[in-house]
Design a protein that fits this description.
Length: 153
């Protein structure tokens, strides 16, 4: 069973009195949240095999917003929050290659895939395919409490 880390973070923010609203869900997963009038594209992901591995629909690169919120955890604990400026995140993602996540003859479904890994005391984002950039996102990594405080400011 996949854990909806973004739901946990959203509920914590609400309980702290942070003005927020879920703008869009895809199936049961939160996709977009408004925190204090700012748009956050949101992903939930579990830490497995020493990394977070995430896919993003290519259509998201055509949208506008303020931040990308990645909520991650291990076992049953929400532990890592990334709040990355929208433009920086999607420009980095676009350097990768859209990858079909289904094997023929099933339908086609393309995604940009990227990893977040903790290496040598920093968080690195790398994108599959294309130029395969490696980007330090450490300054946008927060503990849960620090992320909630950041939203207040």
């Amino acid at each position: 069973m996949k854990i909806h880390w973004a739901n946990k973070f959203y509920n914590l923010a609400e309980s702290k009195g942070i003005k927020c609203r879920i703008e869009q869900k895809v199936r049961e997963w939160i996709e977009t949240i408004d925190f204090l009038g700012k748009k956050y594209f949101t992903k939930s992901v579990s830490y497995e095999k020493g990394q977070y591995f995430i896919g993003v629909d290519p259509s998201k690169l055509k949208e506008d917003g303020d931040f990308v919120l990645i909520c991650g955890g291990k076992i049953n604990t929400l532990s890592d929050i990334f709040i990355i400026p929208w433009e920086i995140f999607f420009k980095t993602l676009a350097k990768g290659e859209r990858i079909n996540t289904y094997k023929p003859p099933k339908k086609e479904y393309y995604q940009y895939k990227f990893y977040l890994r903790y290496r040598e005391k920093c968080w690195l984002m790398s994108v599959q395919g294309g130029e395969r950039p490696i980007f330090d996102v450490s300054k946008w990594h927060y503990s849960v409490e620090d992320a909630l405080s950041r939203l207040h400011s």
